[in-house]
Here is the input.
Amino acid sequence: MKRLVAPSILSADFNNLGKDIELINRSEADYIHFDVMDGVFVPNISFGIPVIEHVNKIATKPLDVHLMIVNPDHFIEPFVNAGASIITVHYEACQHLHRTVQHIKSFGVKASVCLNPHTSVEFLQDVIEDLDMVLLMSVNPGFGGQEFIENTYKKVSQLRKLIDDRGSDCLIEVDGGVNYETGKKLYEAGANVLVAGSFVFKSENPEAIISGLKQL
Ligand code: DX5
Ligand code: ZN
Here is the structure.
């Protein structure tokens, strides 16, 4: 099963973002994860299109854009134009999720749906076969460096069963509180992509941490 790593730049050094992007480029990371926050859907504001446009000029890895925003339909095309390869919208932010997923895929990029910790996996059973990835939040969205929510392991197993029962190749990504201990258990439960922000960028050697996550 695919075991991928997506460092989140939320915890990167924004005074030297290019340096951290070059670090990710030469690392074993598979994606670059962008936590876009609007201060409405989540109680924090992070960054938007200009950051992704500039990173896209130097990035050598696919841009994995996590939209923690209301009305994501209004921003699919601008983020695609900024360079997103994967766009994740929140289940909780979409009135017509199937239409939103179709809209994302109409641009030829990968469509992903995120579930907050309180949202059950069952809510995806009628759209799972249209998805390239599901992102499970293992913290309440809005901030890096939070405590991992243990119930996430059960959700990963439930989602893995749903995906396998449908014969889908949809990836499972997990975001929040990922480190060597939680990451290993997440892979064992059936996750494919680990998003890690603080564990990577608050460390002495981010490249080594990324390699360590890949080898769990
Ligand atoms: C929460 C963010 C964080 C971030 C990773 O909204 O999505 O989960 O990506 O944070 P860490 O890895 O620092 O817990
Ligand atoms: Zn994220």
In short: Residues 4-214 form a domain with the TIM Barrel fold (CATH 3.20.20.70). Helices lie at 17-26, 49-58, 76-82, 97-105, 152-165, 180-189, 198-201, 206-214. The longest helix spans residues 152-165. The chain is about 35% helix and 20% strand.
